[in-house]
């Protein structure tokens, strides 16, 4: 627990043989505050990293930066950071150390190497096949809203897409409203079979 609290505070020491540039970069990488933690762009521009990156990779990054600049008006989905990724596993969930109460997490979570558009299309296909959901979608969230009332009102399901890397996504599906039994039956009978061909690995 002492180690976890140090991680939460960002309390660490670099070995004495680390260079000043690498110490500076590591300190910024391990900042526990996501609002002040160094960005990917600033990491790529750091003197220590640029000295070690082959020129061809630097050129590829320059092209990617240009593409990003051209598309910056398009809203991007939230990207998972290291603390989010740790919390995806029940065995590595640090929240009980810092929260007095923690509700049991319900839902389906999976990883995929397919695009967000493919995931959204799959969810739309499932909704169309079942024929009892209206679909509302955004850049990174898809909501399936039930058309008929069940035992506890209309079933509502939300799927949120998190990019971990450009070609690797984590999708979290959870019940927003309605009956848990109805939700679990939908996941088992309809959702899981429909998503089987795009799931890379199960995360829980």
TrEMBL record:
The record's GO molecular-function terms, alphabetically, read: ATP binding; protein serine/threonine kinase activity
Among Gene3D superfamilies, the record links this protein to: Kinase associated domain 1, KA1, Transferase(Phosphotransferase) domain 1
Instruction: Note the InterPro entries from the entry.
Output: Kinase-like_dom_sf, NAF/FISL_domain, NAF_dom
What does the record give as cofactor? Mn(2+)
A Pfam family cross-referenced in the UniProt record is NAF
One Gene Ontology term from the biological process aspect of the record: signal transduction
Listed A to Z, the keywords are: ATP-binding, Kinase, Manganese, Nucleotide-binding, Serine/threonine-protein kinase, Transferase
Domain NAF spans what residues? 75-99
Q: Which reaction does it catalyse?
A: L-threonyl-[protein] + ATP = O-phospho-L-threonyl-[protein] + ADP + H(+); L-seryl-[protein] + ATP = O-phospho-L-seryl-[protein] + ADP + H(+)
Signal sequence segment:
none
SUPFAM superfamilies annotated for this entry?
Answer: Protein kinase-like (PK-like)
Query: What is the enzyme's main class?
Result: transferase
The EC number on file is 2.7.11.1
Q: Can you tell me which family this protein belongs to? A: Belongs to the protein kinase superfamily. CAMK Ser/Thr protein kinase family. SNF1 subfamily.
PANTHER family reported in the protein's UniProt record: CALCIUM/CALMODULIN-DEPENDENT PROTEIN KINASE KINASE-RELATED, CBL-INTERACTING SERINE_THREONINE-PROTEIN KINASE 6
Q: Provide the protein name.
A: non-specific serine/threonine protein kinase
Organism the protein comes from:
Nepenthes gracilis (Slender pitcher plant)
């Amino acid at each position: 627990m002492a180690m976890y609290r140090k991680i939460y505070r960002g309390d660490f020491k670099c070995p004495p043989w680390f260079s000043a540039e690498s110490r500076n970069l590591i300190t910024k990488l391990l900042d526990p505050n996501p609002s002040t933690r160094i960005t990917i762009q600033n990491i790529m521009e750091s003197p220590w990293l640029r000295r070690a990156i082959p020129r061809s990779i630097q050129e590829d990054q320059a092209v990617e930066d240009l593409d990003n600049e051209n598309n910056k008006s398009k809203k991007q989905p939230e990207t998972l950071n290291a603390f989010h990724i740790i919390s995806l596993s029940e065995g590595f969930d640090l929240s009980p150390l810092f929260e007095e109460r923690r509700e049991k997490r319900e839902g389906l979570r999976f990883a995929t190497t397919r695009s967000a558009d493919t995931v959204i299309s799959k969810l739309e296909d499932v909704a169309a096949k079942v024929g009892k959901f209206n679909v509302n979608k955004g850049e990174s969230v898809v909501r399936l809203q039930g058309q008929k009332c069940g035992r506890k009102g209309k079933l509502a399901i939300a799927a949120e897409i998190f990019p971990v890397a450009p070609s690797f996504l984590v999708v979290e599906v959870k019940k927003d409203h309605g009956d848990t039994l109805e939700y679990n039956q939908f996941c088992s009978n309809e959702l899981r079979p429909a998503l089987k061909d795009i799931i890379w690995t199960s995360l829980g």
